[in-house]
Amino acid sequence: MAVPIFRASLPKSHPLINSLFSTSFTDEPSKKRRMLVSCAPSETKPVREELTFCVGTHLIPHPSKVEKGGEDAFFVSSYNGGVIAVADGVSGWAERNVDPSLFPKELMAYASSFVDDVEVNDNPQVLIGKAHAATSSIGSATVIVAMLERNGILKIANVGDCGLRVIREGKVYFSTSPQEHYFNCPFQLSSQAFGQTYRDAVLSTVELMEGDTIVMGSDGLFDNVFDHEIVSTLTGYRDVAEAAKTLANLASNHSLDSNFDSPYIIEARASGFQAPFWKKILGMKLTGGKPDDITVVVGKVTSL
Known about the structure:
By secondary structure, the protein is an alpha+beta fold. It has helices at 15-20, 102-113, 124-134, 219-222, 227-234, 240-255, 263-270, 277-281, and strands spanning 51-60, 72-77, 82-89, 140-148, 153-159, 163-168, 171-175, 180-182, 185-186, 189-190, 202-207, 213-217, 294-303.
């Protein structure tokens, strides 16, 4: 996230992903936090089933950050009905010789370890607060956490401009809204006193149904892909991992297309940003995607 500090996708080959966010959690004796990577066929029952979701993920680093793996971090847990979370590191810290990826990585590592904590009590806002309090790395990040109870209630806490969509019957049924101080400067958790805290999180509750699809991502997804593109893309996939990969690739392609009229650039024009002088002479408007780390998490709601 190339934005000011008031306010960042790890590939699966990244060492932190391999060590903390692997698809099997083989380093943990408990099965509570195993990654959700496949979907079993659901059964029709006469009463409301307990719900969970199967999850696919994909992450594409910013083109200039491929070697280090980008500055996004995420985790997926099978605790209760399932937990998914994304944190987006603020790249402005690099100007202070601070690695912007360290803060979101540690934040997600602690959040993953606290999902079944008694004090958290299935509250994503409290989970963010405990993880933030435990994080000692210098930096800042936007973050979103969603916790699914087995009765189908999805609880969401969001600080900044990571986002979540619930797709139902081919339409966007629910959408989070970004929190910004001003254009391209979202709310963020920080190691410094000037940042926001878990108390600033926007809280949402959604009652899910079997068959719903959840799409969570860093701003690298939602700045470059419109909601109608997300919906149309999902209709072509039953496999959540392939759906996540396709959405991430779509966002990546849009981000590098200087002629694409992206959600990010539309907001930029609305905020008063104008095209370069040479484009104005030719009667052209400000266009283009936003190169960024891109993290996509796709979850399909199924019965247990």
